[in-house]
Amino acid sequence: MLEHFFVLGLRPDAGASEIRNRYLELVKKYSPEQSPREFRRINAAYEAIKEKRERIAHQILSLDKRPEESLRQLARARPVQRRRVGLKTLLQAQKEE
Amino acid sequence: MAKKKKNKKSSIKKTVKNLSLEQMIARGKGELEAGRYRDALDLLKMADKQAGPSEAVHALLYQAYLRREAQLREKGLIEEADIVRQQAAEYMPPPEQFSPEGLLEYLKTFPLEEAMAGYGRYLAHNGSDGAAEAVLAGQLLCCRQWALLDQVDEETPLRRDAPAVIAAMAPMDQGQWEAAQKALAPIDRESPYAAVRLFCGAMVAFYRENDRRMARALDLIPPDFPLYDLAQTLKSLNRGKEAAQAVRTELPFLWEGPVTAEADMERLIRKAEQGNKLAGAKRLLWNLAQSLDPEAPQQVCFYILSKLGDICQQQGHPPGQWRQLTRSLLDEKSTRLLFRKNELFTLSHKPFSGAGRFIEILEQWFPDPDDRDIAHAQVLVQLVSSLRHADPLTLYAANTDRSGLENYGELLGIESQSRELQLLEIITKALELDPDNRRAYELLTSLPRYSRPAKKRVESALDRMRQHFPRDPLPCLDLARICYEKNAFRQAEKVLKEAMERAPHDNRVIDQHALSLLIAAEKNIRRHKPHLSGPDLEKAESLGSHRMALFVAQKQILFAYISLGRDLETLMREQVDPRPGVEQLRLLSLMILDLQSWDLEESEKGAQQMKLDSKAKNPPDPVHFLKKRFARTLKDANGLGAQELLQLMAPLDDTLAPIYSHRNPAPLFIRADPGILSRIDTESAIPFYPRILTPSIRQPILKDVQGRRKSVRSEKFNQLLAFLEMVLKYLSDKGNAGLLEQLQGLSEEAQGPTREEMRRLSRNLAEHAQGEFAERLEAFDFQIPDLSRQEMIDVILDRIASEEGDAEAPFDENEDFSFDILDILLEHGDRMTKETFEDHLSDLMDEFERFIDSAGLRGVPGFLLTQLRKNMGPDDPFYEEIQEIAKLFQNTRLGTRLSREARILLFGSKKKTRL
After folding, report:
1. ipTM, 2 decimals?
2. How far is A10 from chain B (nearest CA, A)?
3. What is the pLDDT of residues B83-110, one digit of tens each?
4. Interface A-B: count of C-beta contacts within 8 A
5. pTM of the model
6. What is the pLDDT of residues B527-553, one digit of tens each?
7. From the CA of B92, how many Å to the nearest CA of chain A?
8. Does A12 touch chain B (CB under 8 A)?
9. Residues 6+ apart with CB under 8 A from B77
10. Rounded to 5 degrees, what angle do the CA atoms B163, B165, B168 make?
11. With an 8 Å Cβ cutoff, is A72 touching chain B?
């Protein structure tokens, strides 16, 4: 469940309006035509946490049949992006190495 | 160490003293080539002293100092290396005399200022050197002392191409590699700056996530380039997921986000799976949580720990290490919440206490009362859901959790002592707290409700749901089902009408409404009230339910035949013959199934009345007449495909039970055409056999299975068919131990998906077996020793008896549980009308079901109930009561309404409805 919050870039205690606003913001950014994969991911995350009941259940009960898979999804939920670094940083890193 | 070196030095001196100059030089050269630079330096310095100024010795000394300098620099002895370099400079030949290799070595060793000056002098006597300029270009890139270029000729590529590189430096430093690439466009592949351009292109490809292109560019970068090592690492990004993960770990500054999260999570999962490695995972988990959410790692920790707890539980590890890890990472409040959650789901030995304790701390967790109510309801739903699917031993644990009931009964909503009612009470409480909880609602309708109070409770909860969701037809549909169970058909129809108003186009509503009308019509046909059944059938037809259409048509034929006394042959000609072959077969099979149940169930008086009703030139045996017609139609329809046959032969849905007491048409088809099964493909046939199996068609199925085994080629099908054959043989020839061994062999032989399919097949076949063999099929284990079975019985009996220390505790415990109605029935039963007698018997049934609940016998495995029954001797007063109750069912049909547990206790088998 926590992974869905991460996919939407939200804090785990985000409220209903915050979730909705963020969702709308993201689907505008990642339209189904241009980024179908990202759109599906965002949509699935939103569907999973949009209900208050589900969010509360997530907070108190998190038993699932495949906990390993949930943990793996959590590790993948926060995107790992390539950081823009300049030549100086690269040279410095190489020197330190 | 110093002493050792000194000794070595003096020994060299002693040895060398006797050597000639040539020998000394040769030996120095040898040491140099062998990589022993220090020894080479000692020898060459002595040769230099002996020979006086000699270019050859100086050249060798220069070489030796250079190598020694590199060696020291590599060891990190920078200051020492600088001193050695200064010494090397003393013996350096004039740069214009450098060989290409010597030049390169010189340029790589000396600081850029000196190197550039030296290269200037070299250029004055030689042409430009590409490799040397590439080295200098790399150094310029690092030091950015572009002014030094003034020392070389303007036309030299190193100086000529520099302006483009200087222009690209600012964007490169800012990470604007695309802009830098544009600035570097004038650089050609021969330029000393070609590697800079290549690297810039690789970085552009890297940020475009085109790793293939990046790797191609990085491949061309020469080893002299200052970022060569980084380029080599980065190249691996293109070599699969694991290599990419390694690159991310090695060059973390090139990524942002949880770079190592996946690898760390895998390590953590492995530790949890091993069970005994978790306690030491504190740092790993904390770092992981921080990388996933640097602002609130505590919440991530809580979530991960919760899942790790689940893994430990599933693997059956003791929770000690997990608890230790949890305590070390979470604050007290979170730790308590997690531990209590764990208690709730393990159901430990006191499920009610666990849930109650968990609910108690929700107040701290959810200050908002609405949120707290939702959370409270969630816990209750989870508790019921877990108990519903719990194994018998856990159910006994629930039964013995008296302190839980006493301390937390109110929080859990439990008012009664009956297990059946308790679950319903908990779920009703959940719905009171959170009326929108769909899961609670679904659970409510799926929980067993045998007794009248249970039905009443569900009914009132559904009624509330009906009002709470004014547009939802589902509460009405479920309410209608309860009305059927109570035989309140008119009330059911009223509720269904409301459902139709709520969702007039919902097929589920239309189908259910049509079914309710058919149930009412059927009832009235049996009661000989055609004025009521006729309109109901017309109404059912007018609803236009696609799913129910054929059933409506069949009941209309039945009505015309039974109640209106129409000629069966004419009816067949008018109603059946015009239809397509598949529908004809369906209608005929339904007619036969229906009429068979009439023959079987109707009392003699009823049967006579039926004959009177159908004043007819009708055949004396309508079932025989229909069977002949059915066989003829089946023969004519020989072009039916496998899928059509599967549909026709498949048993009717259980929702049709109120209108068809016999729902398996397959025996009709197989008797009419014994070879019909061979027309179905093996893949579809294997899972189909258990669905249609009855003792009467066991032999034809066995024959079909054996026939298939002769021709089947697939190993998987062969194994599954062999398993089926053994089970069918065992069912026909009980007690054949050899077959059990063969079954065990087959189950062990099957691997992977075939084994899973065999296990499924075994479970499905279990319902056709009895006793121990049924249990073995259910467990898919044909080697259960009798001893362990007996031990299992003993364990459970001990648990039942734990309160009183007596194996018959549930009965003794309920000594005051008197069946008052039994006395009334025994005393006055023979003077009662049939209706009054059945009413009283119905109440006695409810009382008996309540007794089963309060004794904790609901859900107990059949073999254990049988054992309990056997344990009671004829001297036992309870045995006597049971016998008397069982006898009362002798002349009624009410036995079918008893629960499985009641039937086993009263009649000795779940399949019996009378003694």
Report:
1. 0.84
2. 10
3. 887 777 777 777 767 777 777 777 777 7
4. 145
5. 0.53
6. 788 888 888 899 888 888 888 999 999
7. 28
8. yes
9. none
10. 110
11. yes
